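Need tokens for this chain, all 305 residues.
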Amino acid sequence: MPDKEISNSMILSDQPTKDELDRLHESLHEFNRSQTDGNYDLPGVEINMIARDQNGTVVGGVSASTVLKVMHLEVLWVAKEYRKFGLASKLVLGAERIGAGYGCLTAQTMSFSFQAPGFYQKIGYEVLGVYTGYPFGITETILNKPLNREGRPADSNEGMLLEGHDGLISFTEEVTEEDLKSLHVGLHAHVVENIGDRYKGKAIRLVLRDRSGRMVGGLTGFTTINNLILESMWIEEEFRRAGLGTKLLAEAESIAIEDECTACQTMSLSFQAPDFFIRHGYKTFAVSEGYPDPFREFYFIKQLD
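Here are the structure tokens for all 305 residues:
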């Protein structure tokens, strides 16, 4: 069947089932593993560390995931009254030592301009690029740092005494779901304090089904700060290069424009689809070489009409 007929025969839906979304993520994960000889999952651990005051209250913490030997710092938060005392540095450096001990080559993170891009540079992170697609003067910096493969020293979790605060600040890797919730609540409050409700947006979940109702592809993303953030896209192998990715992407961009988005951000590992995004008008604003050879990660921006 010609590519145009294949594309036209598919039914596009923005109401995927949970099973379809699960299959989308599982299929993409299997593809990533197949393209990296199974190394995509390495080391495959979550890294969490929190700081508590003398009463056991969470006053800061860091959370990271690990993929393809890169540690991705996803959450860093310190309570306002405990900032400027070095807690953030101790948390990040502690996470780095854990990551290095598991075999991570680099640490990588993204930081809004109202967060801490300068802080990361002070502790050795290099700026890979800056995303300028947000309104209101907001930018997002991509940063990367090589990790010391010697691992962490035995005293890496030693407590701290802070001037003007009673008791010892303790650090631990024994983190509960409630502890992680506290980190997310604290980080969310910081975002709201800086940009109000501009972060609010909508989830975008799209699937393509053939005439029998079988899912053959899908896309996930969300809108925030007048931007579309593309998270994942996958097409069944037998239907690739038939315009289905274009169909999904066009629909996601259309939804985003209706939601008053002015730009789109996404990223793609070198074995995924960087050329696809370039063909569809996306521009590279950063490249990470922090992964094992020959893999790289491309960060893209596209202005939406």
